[in-house]
Amino acid sequence: MSKVLETQGLTKYFYDPVKFQVLKSIDMSINHGEFVSIVGKSGCGKSTLLYLLSTMDTDYEGKILMNDEIITGKSDKELAVIRNEKIGFVFQFHYLLSEYNVLKNVMLPGLKLNRLSEEEVEHNAMEHLRTLDMHEQALKMPNQLSGGQKQRVAIARALINNPLIIMGDEPTGNLDKKNSDLVFDIFQKLTLEKQQTLLIVTHDNDFASRTNRTITMEDGRIVL
Fold first, then answer.
1. Which strands, in side-by-side order, build the sheet including 61-66?
2. Closest Cα partner for 40 from 187, 161, 196, 200?
3. CA angle at residue 38 from 34 to 216, to 5 degrees?
4. Which tens digit of pLDDT belongs to each residue from 152-193?
5. Closest to 203 in 3D by CA, of 56, 93, 92
């Protein structure tokens, strides 16, 4: 099975106010089509790890490989392309732009990538909204949606460029049980039907227990 993501000796220090080691020589890999969760107490380093894997932070020791290609040491410009093309993001807060309707919010990363015509991006955006049962809300503004609906729009946006991997940082952290279950079901469906690879940091043990594999972190290390 092909590896979508791999780390070799990933180590990270913070220097504020004193030198502090946040990640300690992390070796891990995520296979194509896997639905993986990362759990651990607050401060164990899981969000920092996700931040490095998503190429947002490049100040680390060790190596990160994506699709067997080393991305460590690439320029900011190259990493920006990788982020837009290969990684879909779903955060605890949906970060929808209030001035655009649902459809336009989903289209934005696709328009930015500029690989397809606007019509094609719009068509794909509607397809993703349909998959998530949000197509009837396409012309609504974000402030007209519930929290669960906003998160579904954020997932559609994460899918728009057909990413290699979707990374989530507490994507159900702001949702009630019903909507958390809904988001989990969407993620599971994406894995089963579209072989979408997912890496989700979560505090929700119930959510984590239902993923294909759980990575447990403690004090900057993977312990399980």
1. 20-31, 3-14, 61-66, 69-70
2. 200
3. 115
4. 899 899 999 889 999 999 888 888 888 888 889 989 999 998
5. 92
For 4-23, write each residue's pLDDT tens digit.
999 999 999 998 789 989 99
Question: What distance in Å separates the CA atoms of residue 215 and residue 192, rounded to the nearest whole number?
Answer: 20
What is the distance between the alpha carbons of residues 162 and 110, in angstroms, rounded to a whole number?
Answer: 9
* DSSP reduced 3-state for 1: coil
Phi first, then psi, for residue 162 (nearest 5°) are 50, 60
List the structure tokens of 92: 């605890």
> What's the 3-state SS for 86-149?
HEEEEECCCCCCCCCCHHHHHHHHHHHHCCCCHHHHHHHHHHHHHHCCCHHHCCCCHHHCCHHH
Residue at 157: amino acid letter: R
Q: At residue 1, does pLDDT exceed 80? A: no
Q: Mapping DSSP to helix (H, G, I), strand (E, B) and coil, where does residue 13 land?
A: strand
Query: Are residues 178 and 2 in contact, defined by beta-carbon separation less than 8 angstroms?
Result: no
Question: For residue 111, what are its two tokens?
Answer: 């328009």
Within the chain, residue ranges assigned H as helices are: 46-53, 76-86, 102-113, 118-131, 147-159, 177-194, 205-209
The neighbouring-strand residues paired with 200 are 37, 168
Cα separation, 3 vs 63, whole angstroms: 14
pTM: 0.90
